[in-house]
Structure formats: structure tokens, C-alpha cells
Amino acid sequence: MEPSSLRITVSSSLDRRLRYEPLRRAVRAAWSQPSGGHIGIRLMSDSEIGDLNAQFRGMDTPTDVLTFPSVPNPAHHLGDIAISVDTAERQARERGLKPSEELQYLAIHGALHLCGLDDETEEQRSEMVREMARVAEKLGLRVVETWHSIH
Fold first, then answer.
1. CA distance 55 to 97
2. Res 3: pLDDT
3. Is 135 left (phi over 0), alpha (psi -120 to 50) or beta?
4. Kind and range of the H or E run holding 68
5. 82: β partners
6. Distance (Å, rounded) from C-alpha 89 to C-alpha 101?
7. With contact defined as beta carbons under 8 Å apart, do 136 and 143 qualify?
């Protein structure tokens, strides 16, 4: 797939200056599907992602990243990734990463979910972490071979 056939838009509900291009690069590096199309990334607060987590997963608590795959449609919308910047900042401190690095890890994680990977079982989690490490290395990020959601 040509990188130009994958369009990634990033938006934020926060009053903070955040760099969007590293997130786009992270999603492109993780994307393994032959199809192109559009992926949306939404950066938000713990409160906002907590509302989504309650609505779609029945869990009344914030989380780090949620992924919403899209059914095939004529507009080629592939899905959306919601990321809590608040949780990313906390997890970055706990891992000894920069917040921008953790945000890229979360974008990778979300993109891999859109590609069909899951992390519900231990075997799936191991595969997800291996693939995240491969993508992180490709991007020049510090590799966290034991990455997991800390929230």
C-alpha cells in the first residue's frame, strides 16, 4: 500500500499544543492492511474517554486508548482512535517515557487494533506487544518490550 493512500486526521478537544505529525507517522508505520482510506485520531481528556468507555464498553472509568473500527463504506473510513492525553501523560511518567513517545505508542496500539490484532488473551497480548515493539523500533522510538495499558 502506498503511504499516500492512507489519510489520517488528528483532532483534539484540549487547550494544549500537541504535535500531530508523530501520531500520523506512528499509524502509518503500524498500518499493515492493503487497503487505503481514512483513519481519525481524537485526542481527549480522561473525562471524555471515560464517557466513551462507559458507553461502548460498560466500564465507567477512563482508559488510555479506544479503537472504533468502521464497517466498509464508500468513503473508505477505516475507523477511529480515541486517546486520553491525561492517561498518556501519567503512563509516560510511570514508564520513564516522554509524553510524546507514549502518545505514539497509543496511536500504534490503536492502529494495530484497526488492523485486526487484539489483546484480550495472554497470547494475543504477547503478539500485540511484539508488533508494537517492531513498529516502535522502525520509528526510532525507545522500545518498551513489556508495554501494556497501566490505567
1. 30
2. 46
3. alpha
4. strand 65-69
5. 42, 66
6. 10
7. yes
Q: How confident is the model at residue 2 (pLDDT cuts 50, 70, 90)?
A: very low
Question: What does the pLDDT read at residue 46?
Answer: 97
Max alpha carbon distance in the chain (Å)?
Answer: 43
Single-letter code of the amino acid located at 146: T
Q: How many CB atoms lie within 10 A of CB 132?
A: 26
Helix (H, G, I), strand (E, B) or coil at 1: coil
Pairing, β 65-69 against β 6-12: unpaired
Alpha helices, H only, the chain: 21-30, 46-57, 85-95, 99-114, 122-139
Q: Are 148 and 125 in contact (CB under 8 A)?
A: yes
For cell 477505516, what's the residue? 78
**Helix, coil or strand: residue 54:** helix
d(CA 123, CA 93): 27
Task: For residue 8, give the C-alpha cell.
Answer: 489520517
Confidence label for 150 from pLDDT (cuts 50, 70 and 90): low
DSSP β-ladder status, 77-84 and 37-44: parallel
Residue 3 to residue 20: CA distance in whole angstroms: 17
